[in-house]
Structure formats: structure tokens, C-alpha cells
Amino acid sequence: MSYPNSDSASAKLYQRALNSLPGGNTRTTVFMKPYPLYASKGEGCHVWDVDGDIRIDCVNNFTSNIHGYANPEINRVVQEQLARGTAFGMPTVAEIELAELICSRVCSIERVRFTNSGTEAVMMAIKAARAFTKRPKIAKVEGSYHGSYDYAEVSLDSSPGNWGEMTAPTSVPYAEGTPEAVLADVITIPFNDPERSLQILSQHASELAGILVDPLPNRAGLIPASQAFIQGLADFCEKNGSLLIFDEVISFRLGYHGAQAIWNVQPHLTALGKIIGGGFPIGAVGGKEEVMAVFDPRCGKPALPHGGTFSANPISMCAGIAALKQLTPAVYEHLAEMGEALRLAINHAFAARHLPGRAVGMGSLIKVHFSESDVTDYRSGYQSPEVARRLSIFVKGLLNRGVVAASYGLLVLSTPMTLSEIDSIASAVERALDDVVLSLNSQSGT
Ligand SMILES: Cc1ncc(COP(=O)(O)O)c(C=O)c1O
């Protein structure tokens, strides 16, 4: 197991990919220099690359594979459905069953609408908020990732050169060519700063359709939102007729009743995705019946028409049902225990090496930071080139010790893991941190 290796099958596949995919890549999130490892199969919590190397997978397809790979029950229902048909121009019973499961678990969700991705779920939630309130603007948290809809991408990667004052963060485009009109309709607020956020929001109160918030924003540092922040946003919405939109595309991983039960709040709309598809493409927007009525076609064209060739396809639906049924409260507890054990082990490993850094996160989601000071929001987590260099050595070090982590330091657990795998991951973390220490020593000539 030695990455990088220009003679490897992965390196050769990447050379081939360069001839048909831009930069050899069709999904920016899996891009890696000098080349990505190509997967050949997965089983339980392990993934094989095309060179035959086996690793513990702590990416889990960016959190979607909560049951790892080849889960027997998911495979069984999908194989049965494959034999019956994969997509119809007719509804199926599976969409009702998955909707019922979600409604029964999440208090604020009375009606659900399925999409094909989390991006679409967030997009439809924003459009639903606009259709319901007849207002144009949305607010979102600086640095928070919500998928690829223009409006949801604003200020995803703003930098010290363009992010403006903390009291009034500038709305910065993510993709080149983003229309000015999009920026004008997205209000950017600072994470976990209820006072400043409410000041900013109040300037747009009569135009705000909704506030989009992820209570555990991964790209913004994986720091939990404070209760005061979430409650402040909820109260603002209540008072001003805006809708609170929770993005639980990732954070639905945190508990049986969703992240919103942990923060004890009932958003008007919730975007879901990832785990509710059991490893297949999915997204969903759910909410109170009154709000979700914008999709209701019974009286002719609804306020918000919504289709989608593969929306609610029965493969994703039945895989999602099988995945959720296996996610009992006890299973969530087990995931959280493993997550806590790994965070502790990582923090111990940093301390033992007198290396600045720490593990943060909640439940089965762990993020490793190499910054000198505490990360409290997007700005404090913004990486200097040196911090980025350490992280890159760390992630590469993990790969070479049999663990795959996301390039930005995220480690995601899955239900097939046991405390024995957590021990193996912790050992790999120690060795990867040793690599970082070694590079620092060689930099300083010690
Ligand atoms: C919080 C959050 N929202 C939305 C999305 C978009 O979901 P998808 O990749 O399924 O489009 C993601 C994807 O990682 C996400 O993390």
C-alpha cells in the first residue's frame, strides 16, 4: 500500500480518464492530486481499490453509506425490485412507505416530496419557501455547503480578501459567472453569532422567504450550532413570516428523529438526502402540510410544480426503506459511542505529540482540524497554506495506513464498524500524525 505510485492501476486509469473527462474528473469532491484511487468493490466498512488494496472506508460516499457496502437487507430488496422494474411513469407503493417512515420519525414533517439529490432537495425547499411566502430572498450561513443550486452556493468559499466585515459578510459567488441577481437575493449571516445575524436579517425582514441552516455544517468546520443561534433564527422566522429551512442532508445521521429533535426546534421545511436512499441517489423536502401544499396539484397547476424523471424511483425508495428500518435508536447510540471514542483517541494523539489540532463533530461525524486556535466558525476554520499542508500529509498518511478519509479531514463512521475498527482507525491516525511531525521536524532541521 503505497500512494502515490505512478505504476499503479489507479494512476493508469487516471491517465485514461484525462482523455474523456475534464481534468480526468466528473465529481470535484473525489479529485485528488496526483490521481484518485479508483474503487473496485466495497463490503461492510471496507473498500477495495483497483490495485487490490483494502482500506477501512471513513468517507462512506460523503456520508450516504451509513450501512457501508453490500448491506444484505438493502441488497435483497433492491435485487427484488430490479427484477420488477427500476423506474415507472407511475407512482409506486414504495414512495408512500418511505414517506410514511420519514413522517413518523420527524415531528415537523407531515408531507414529503422526493428528489434525486440533496442539491435538488435544498433547491426545492428554497423554491417552496419563495412560493409560500411570495418573497424573493433567502439567508444562509457563511461557509455552509448545501449542494450546487446557485443560491445555496453563495459564500461557500469566501476568503479574507472578499468576505467583508463580520458585521455584514459579503455575499460572494462560488462559481464564476453567477448572476449578480443571485447575490442580491442571498443574505449571508455569520455562524453561531445570533446577535449579528439578527441585526443583518432584520434589515431584510419583509423580503426574506426563508433562512437556510445546517445545524452541523460540515464545510464550515463541523462545529455544532449553538442552541441560542438556532432558536434566534427560529424566533426571527416566527415573528417575521419567513420559513426556517433545516438542511439535514448530512445531519439526519445524528439521530432517529433527526438533528432538529436534538436542537429541539421544528423547522417549516427540511431538506434530506444521503442516508434516506440506502446508498442510492435520493433527496427529499418535507414540512408542515400547510407549507408543502405549494406542491399539491389537486386544484390545477400548483404554486410550485415539481417533477423529475427519476424522482421517487422504486430502487432508491426500497433501498431507503431498508436502510431506515435498520436505523433503530440503539444503532444511532452505537454510532455515537464509536464517534466519541474516535474523537477522544484523536485528541489524545494530538496532545501526546504536542501538535496543534483537534477532532470535532458529533455522532458518527468527525472532523480533524490542524489550526493552532479553536475553530468556532467558517472564518476561524479558514486554512492557512501551512494548515492545508499538514492536513494533506495527514490524509495521505491515513491512506497509506489503510484508512480512507475525505481530503478536508472528515471521517465518517458506518454501522458495520465495531470498536475494533475504531482502534484500527485510531492507530492509523497516530501514524499519520507522526508523518506530520516528521515533516515539521525536517522543515525546522531537527
Ligand atoms: C449539507 C448538505 N446539503 C446538501 C448537499 C447536496 O447533496 P447531494 O450531493 O446529494 O446533491 C450536501 C452534499 O454533500 C450536503 O452535505
UniProtKB/TrEMBL annotation:
It comes from the Bacteria. Its cofactor is pyridoxal 5'-phosphate. It holds the Pfam family Aminotran_3. The keyword Transferase applies. This is Aspartate aminotransferase family protein. One of its GO terms (molecular function) is transaminase activity. The keyword Transferase applies. Belongs to the class-III pyridoxal-phosphate-dependent aminotransferase family. Transmembrane segments: none annotated. InterPro entries: Aminotrans_3 (IPR005814), PyrdxlP-dep_Trfase (IPR015424), PyrdxlP-dep_Trfase_major (IPR015421), PyrdxlP-dep_Trfase_small (IPR015422). Keywords: Aminotransferase, Pyridoxal phosphate, Transferase. PANTHER family: GLUTAMATE-1-SEMIALDEHYDE 2,1-AMINOMUTASE (PTHR43713), GLUTAMATE-1-SEMIALDEHYDE 2,1-AMINOMUTASE 1, CHLOROPLASTIC-RELATED (PTHR43713:SF3).
